[in-house]
Amino acid sequence: MLKSRMTSLVSSSCVEIVTMSLYRNTVWLLKGLQEYTKGGYEAAARSFSEADLEVAVSGRSFIITGANSGIGKAAACEIAKRGGTVHLVCRNEDRAKEARKDVVEQSKNENVHVHLVDMSNPRKVWEFASGFSQNHNLHVLINNAGCMVNQRELTEDDLEKNFATNTLGRKVNSCFSDLTLVIWTYILTTALIPTLKKSENPRVITVSSGGMLVQKLNVEDLQFEKGSFDGTMAYAQNKRQQVIMTEQWAAQHKEVHFSSMHPGWADTPAVRSSMPDFYAKMKNKLRTEAQGADTVVWLAISDTASRQPSGLFFQDRKAVSTHLPLASSRTSPAEDQKLMSELEELAVKFKS
Q: 0.85 exceeded by the pTM?
């Protein structure tokens, strides 16, 4: 009898999970078709204030990760055009040099610097942050780097690749993996917060994704060791982690303005390579790289953005909810804190 009841409860729970997942995915897709496309951007842009980006940022220093293409490169161009000192953090030397050349040509600003960092190695992330802090000031950190790995793979440190890049901060082969990116984001941000606090009006912007709306934080399986692996869902889970990290940092470090954002569905090299089927179906509706980068730039330089409360999630220059209606994706403060504690424990292991 007890075994029968337990089987019934497990079966019922599985049905609820599948049903909720289907609900979230359906609502998110409909939302995306309306808001995340080029048409969604153009509709939102009608209410933008041009004056928000009419800002000179000469003398301010910006780090942008994943800046050799896509949204990162587009953001670098816009910031450089306004006089900012831009530090491009990249892995591939040839692509980084080409990106710098393009940014300088478009902006007429020579204060664009390349930093080559092996983001597949968390120790190198710590080393970069330490060296940068000793030699440069920093006003704005833009955590942009990342992409999707479609099968579960481990780094040489036994970190799941997606997590290591999207959360802790790790780049593997030609692409950021999800766990690695979360670790990369955590390490780089944590290491640079003391430097940011020395500057006027410091900011941290993390490029997340609206895809995180389909996921509830799961602190019991950060490296996707349980069940079958789904790269798309792992990516969404890591983007949820980044949003929660932003909220937690905002609460802990009042001197720094933190924000996360969704760039919409943009036509970038990462989308073309990681999501070929999606790209084939949606390519005529995707945003340009500049449109995807618009809110990144707005958060990085505008006075209007800095007056927003710290820790919010933005889409098209507006703070938006981090949860879909009735989606049961909220977590407890204890779960959020557990995420931060586990990231700290992992990150410290790689600190020299």
A: yes
Residue ranges per structural domain of the chain: 58-199+211-349
pLDDT single digits (tens) 225-269:
766 666 778 888 899 999 999 999 999 999 999 999 999 999 888
The mean predicted confidence, pLDDT, of the chain is 87
How far is 214 from 209, CA to CA, in rounded Å?
10
Confidence band (pLDDT; 50, 70, 90) for 170? very low
Positions marked active-site: 235
For the domain made up of 58-199+211-349, give the CATH fold.
Rossmann fold (3.40.50)
Q: What angle do CA 341, 190, 83 make, to 5 degrees?
A: 150
Q: Which two tokens stand for residue 227?
A: 């069940």
Strands (E), 70-202: 85-90, 112-116, 140-143, 167-168, 171-172, 175-176
Position 301, amino acid? I
Q: At what angle do helices 178-196 and 333-349 cross, to 10 degrees?
A: 90
